Amino acid sequence: MSKEVVTMEIVFIRHGQTDLNKSGRIQGSSVNLSLNKEGREYAEEAAKNFDPSEFDAVYVSPLDRAVETAEIFTKGQKKLIPDDRLLEFDYGEWDGELLTEMKKRHPDAIDPWGKVAKNYVDYASNGETHEELNKRCGDFLDEMYKKYPDGKVLVVAHGTLIRMMAAHYLTHGDISGFDTIANCGLVKFSVRENIARMIYYNRILA
């Protein structure tokens, strides 16, 4: 008799827009802004095309922008489980800085796609490393698979963190091949026997 194959589905949603997003500033874990008016309105529009009822659990970054987005998308139907491992990447002293300004100061620490590169820690000594982020993402994903091997999990979090979640599954923690998804964009993986397949990346609902 063949063994039954069980599959975990995990969907990530990036939070809605904040004023810092709009201004092109770096927004890491030390910045705790709520959604701006445009961000709230867009999240509400996108949530009209999202059904939270299918999920067995909803995990969320404790930061306000993620919690507010999760509340909009789950429509009061689900308990939100905060988890510090879902906090956005900690850019240290770069948090809140204009990305264009950091590119002028440290052009080698911004990649060709305009994202903060792995070596930014050469200039932000108190910032988190990609290896540290990959480890906490991996710890979280391993726990989800143990708890919900045949379940559906929703995670509402942040742009760089979601890039690393994808990278942990597919490229051993190298995020350079993954763009930051749009505000309120979705990413979905299916996982069988700890082997992950990307179903979609940066799905837009509105």
From TrEMBL:
CDD domains: HP_PGM_like. PANTHER family: BROAD-SPECIFICITY PHOSPHATASE YOR283W-RELATED. It holds the Pfam family His_Phos_1. It comes from the Bacteria. This is Phosphoglycerate mutase. It comes from Lactobacillus intestinalis DSM 6629. InterPro entries: His_Pase_superF_clade-1, His_PPase_superfam, PGM_Phosphatase. SMART domains: PGAM (SM00855). Gene3D superfamilies: Phosphoglycerate mutase-like.
